[in-house]
Specification:
heterodimer; A: 142 residues; alpha+beta; 3 helices; 23% helix; B: 89 residues; 3-stranded antiparallel sheet
Chain lengths: 142, 89
């Protein structure tokens, strides 16, 4: 069997099609933008299209041919603001229609767990010291 | 040999890939691509018991290949599918 490289957009377009039908899809997490909650080295998330979006939901969004898996930090009618938990200042602005699906659980090893809001809210409130927290977490290997 | 329940062939980005499906959840974290002849064989033995001989028969019926080569290729394919854990003995 051979190994083929499929670009991100193509694969996630397929995921978007599947979740649009109501089915769930599991994907690997890529990168560090959602540290400390999601680890790009080992985590997977289960995605499902949710009709309702809530603040602090982790969602897959497509913005200008680019997919991000980030947290909703603000909802203003149709306007959504996203931010990666592992990012220091960057945010993404998009519309409801850019949101593809919601991450409903994380799979790490053979453990599947849902996402709690308390930790997310706390982490969001600690934005002023996020840089230091991420540094410390990295130091302890997290 | 039999295809494990929950594994099916899908077309993703123009490639035939085997994905794990289950409880209405499609797992894209482990996908295996099949070339044209492997995809053909997969479709043919879907839901059925098969052996290397059966695959070899299918190959000789569909392609210009000697029975010996078809059998060697079929055995190799079965080994790779077993290794990928997408079929059972």
């Amino acid at each position: 069997m051979r190994r083929i490289i499929v670009d991100n957009e193509t694969l996630l377009d397929e995921v978007a099609e599947i979740t649009a039908t109501g089915q769930k899809a599991t994907i690997r997490v890529k990168g560090d933008s959602m540290r400390p909650f999601l680890d790009g080295r080992r985590d997977k998330v289960v995605l499902q299209k949710n009709t309702e979006l809530h603040k602090y939901d982790i969602v897959l969004a497509k913005i200008n041919h680019r997919y991000v898996l980030h947290r909703i930090i603000r909802i203003d009618g149709d306007k959504i603001t996203l931010m990666g938990d592992g990012n220091l200042i960057g945010t993404e602005a998009c519309l409801r229609s850019n949101i593809v699906a919601t991450a409903i659980s994380r799979i790490r090893g053979d453990k599947e767990s849902g996402f709690g809001r308390t930790g997310a809210i706390l982490w969001f409130r600690l934005r002023p010291v996020r840089r230091y927290l991420l540094y410390l977490l990295r130091k302890i290997g997290y | 040999m039999k295809i494990k329940p929950g594994f099916e062939l899908r077309k993703v980005a123009g490639e035939s890939v085997v994905v794990a499906t289950g409880a209405e959840n499609i797992d894209f974290s482990k996908i295996i691509s099949l070339n044209t002849s492997a995809a053909y064989l997969w479709d043919e033995v879907s839901g059925k018991e098969f052996t290397a001989e059966i695959l070899a028969d299918l190959l000789t019926g569909q392609y210009e290949v000697t029975r010996e080569k078809a059998l060697i290729d079929s055995e190799a394919l079965i080994e790779s599918w077993l290794k990928a854990e997408i079929i059972t003995r």
